[in-house]
Design a protein that fits this description.
By secondary structure, the chain is of the alpha+beta class. Helix content is 28%, strand content 23%. The protein has helices spanning 6-12, 77-82, 143-148, 150-153, 157-179, 220-228, 266-285, 298-305, 331-335, 352-363, 390-400, 415-432, 510-519, 524-538, 552-560, 590-595, and strands spanning 39-51, 56-62, 65-71, 91-100, 115-126, 183-184, 202-204, 212-214, 233-241, 253-262, 295-297, 318-320, 338-344, 371-376, 379-381, 407-413, 443-447, 452-455, 460-463, 490-495, 498-505, 545-551. The strands form 5 sheets. An 8-stranded mixed β-sheet has the order 6-9-10-22-21-20-17-11, sandwiched between helices. A 5-stranded mixed β-barrel has the order 1-2-3-5-4. The radius of gyration is 30 Å and the shape is globular.
């Protein structure tokens, strides 16, 4: 890190000067051999400083890269003498002449590694305190420290590159959709609280005491209203807000690419989405994709991979052996609704401790344990092997195409638990075994989702996506019948095991929308109170319409090869939804609360997070 103590920083401030008319001619990442002999002016931060006695070398950094600049007593003795004050992260402007580096001193790792600038004149534009961590990609500083000083963290080259990519992503999306006839229309941030799957962030209204706005979880209703308004094709790159527990790929505020189209069905929306993604990947990463992307129904995805966002960059698909062990002597298999297995080729090498660790892993998904079989030459090693008949062994061996050296992990129980446990174990094992290709982008569609899902806590059915998704053609009457069988006209776009986009064909008649609300347990009065404005709008000639929303942060994260969306959001929150930099959220004073007609109650210790 910097070798400038704070008192030295104070001493050096006497050298700080204004720009005084100096103008940059180049950034620090573009000088090449064709610039040799050219007089240039560069500005940036001191990345490294090397004093070789006679010469002082500075690596000058800006967002474009690094350039080596040289202070030589033979070239300008005064400039060289004063350069001894320079320290890491000081802000500097230099004027000088580009020259080739001496033979053998080139640096092929730098874009500007074949040249250097010998300094004629320079100005110290600002001093800097000693950074709390190196301004380099490799750092052992904790994320909490880096987020608390995000302005320093963002100087690191990798993050600079991430935001350059994000910018190009924005531009590619806008250019593509503009070329396809879409209008970009902004929708309100202060809106009405409507149930859309997560808690709303609420904003009290000073002008309407006791009333609250909600920050939008998505512009879903507004984009439908725009279709009713005749806008025909709408898009927006928009902030959305959800008050939910966070993970590496979630934030309380996030960015969506929101798209809606009139007079379309599923194929038109899906083709447009594919074309847009292909355009963006080509324009930003120079990666050629090959639409149309594969399509799996939700049931196929769950049967083969255990999850509705499968990663298809590797094999290890799940195999259903329920029918093979229905009458098994192993009572857990015999009584279970579903029995599935996951084969790992060469998994015989797993130790008992490793298997115990995997058992603990699947318990997070509701499993009570993890059955397994190791296949050795002439025998099966397993605590459950003695309970399996020869016929069951033969059926299992055929189902998995078992050979010596394989291991199979089994789960037995409900459809939901078995799929969750093995589907997540599959991905966990693939990364543990390092069999996931790092340079592949595998897109696929998942379609025909259930329209409803049962909430065990609330003891009622909820909309899988949102309550404005149209039921599949022919399933409309299930709204008053067996709602568990109703399918949605919904589709998700999945990339490498991550849902990056999701949409649906919307309900466009007031009659079906009312029936949908009733199926969700809303009586007519409640539906009118919460959604009356939408129902009335649907009565004024709404066109058939549908759309899709992309999680921009997540997609940029995957394109950048990052492991967290915090690496592609300028000022992210922590997993506790706090900002270490600004220390938000914070308490407000009593006067502000009085103006909003609010009074805080004391939170009991048991209620605190």
């Amino acid at each position: 890190m910097s070798d400038a103590p704070q008192d030295l920083q104070q001493e050096h401030r006497q050298y700080v000067k204004p720009l005084g008319g100096w103008q940059r001619t180049h950034d620090c990442g573009t000088l090449k051999s064709e610039d040799i002999g050219r007089r240039v002016c560069l500005m940036g931060w001191v990345q490294h400083r090397r004093d070789h006695g006679g010469l002082i070398f500075i690596d000058l950094r800006d967002r474009a890269g690094l350039t080596q600049v040289v202070f030589s007593p033979d070239h300008n003795a005064a400039a060289h003498a004063e350069a001894h004050v320079l320290r890491i992260e000081y802000v500097l402007a230099i004027q000088g002449t580009v020259r080739a580096r001496p033979e053998g001193m080139e640096n092929p790792a730098m874009a500007t590694g074949g040249v250097e600038v010998v300094v004629d004149a320079w100005k110290l534009l600002n001093t800097a305190r000693t950074p709390l961590f190196p301004i380099e990609d490799r750092t052992e500083a904790s994320e909490s420290l880096r987020l608390a000083h995000r302005y320093l963290d963002l100087r690191r080259p990798r993050l600079q590159s991430n935001f350059a990519l994000r910018h190009r992503f924005y531009m590619a999306v806008r250019n593509f959709l503009d070329g396809r006839g879409f209008y970009e229309v902004e929708t309100p941030i202060l809106t009405k609280s409507t149930p859309e799957g997560a808690r709303d962030f609420l904003v009290p209204s000073r002008l309407n005491p006791g009333s609250f706005y909600a920050l939008p979880q998505s512009p879903q209703i507004f984009k439908q209203l725009l279709m009713i308004s005749g806008m025909d094709r709408y898009f927006q790159i928009v902030k959305c807000f959800r008050d939910e527990d966070l993970r590496a790929d979630r934030q309380p505020e996030f960015t969506q690419i929101d798209i809606e189209m009139s007079f379309v069905e599923e194929p038109q929306v899906m083709r447009l989405a594919e074309d847009m993604v292909a355009h963006v990947f080509d324009d930003v990463l120079h990666v050629k994709l090959s639409p149309p992307f594969p399509v799996l129904t939700w049931r196929e995805a769950m049967d083969r991979f255990g999850v509705d966002k499968p990663d298809t960059r590797f094999g290890m698909e799940l195999v259903d052996v329920t029918s093979h062990v229905r009458g098994s002597g192993f009572k857990l298999f015999a009584a279970a609704k579903v029995v599935k297995g996951l084969k790992v080729t060469g998994g015989e090498r797993f130790t008992r401790k490793e298997i115990d660790d995997l058992t603990e892993y699947v318990k997070a998904f509701g499993a009570q344990g993890l059955a397994w079989i190791k296949v050795r030459e002439g025998e099966w090693q397993s605590p459950i092997a003695k309970f399996l008949s020869d016929a069951e062994r033969a059926a299992i061996a055929e189902a998995f195409s078992l050979v010596p050296g394989d291991i199979v992990f089994f789960q037995a129980g409900s459809f939901e638990m078995v799929n969750a446990a093995l589907g997540n174990l599959r991905v966990h094992l693939a990364h543990h075994l390092d069999i996931v290709p790092r340079d592949a982008f595998n897109f696929l569609w998942v379609t025909e989702f259930p329209l409803f899902e049962y909430d065990e806590t609330e003891k009622r059915y909820e909309a899988c996506h949102h309550p404005f998704t149209s039921p599949a053609v022919g399933d409309e009457d299930l709204l008053e019948g067996d709602v568990a069988r109703a399918r949605a006209r919904a589709y998700d776009l999945v990339l490498n095991g991550n849902e990056v986009g999701g949409g649906s064909i919307r309900i466009h008649t007031a009659q079906i929308q009312r029936r949908m609300f009733r199926a969700l347990g809303f009586d007519d009065a409640t539906a009118e109170e919460r959604f009356g404005f939408l129902i009335r709008a649907l009565e004024y000639g709404a066109p058939p319409h549908g759309g899709i929303a992309f999680g921009l942060d997540r997609l940029v994260m995957l394109m950048a090869g990052a492991t967290s969306i915090r690496d592609v959001i300028a000022f992210p929150k922590t997993q506790k939804a706090s900002c270490p930099l600004t220390e938000a959220p914070t308490a407000v004073d009593a006067q502000q609360l009085r103006e909003l007609s609010l009074r805080l109650r004391e939170v009991a210790p048991t209620e605190k997070a």
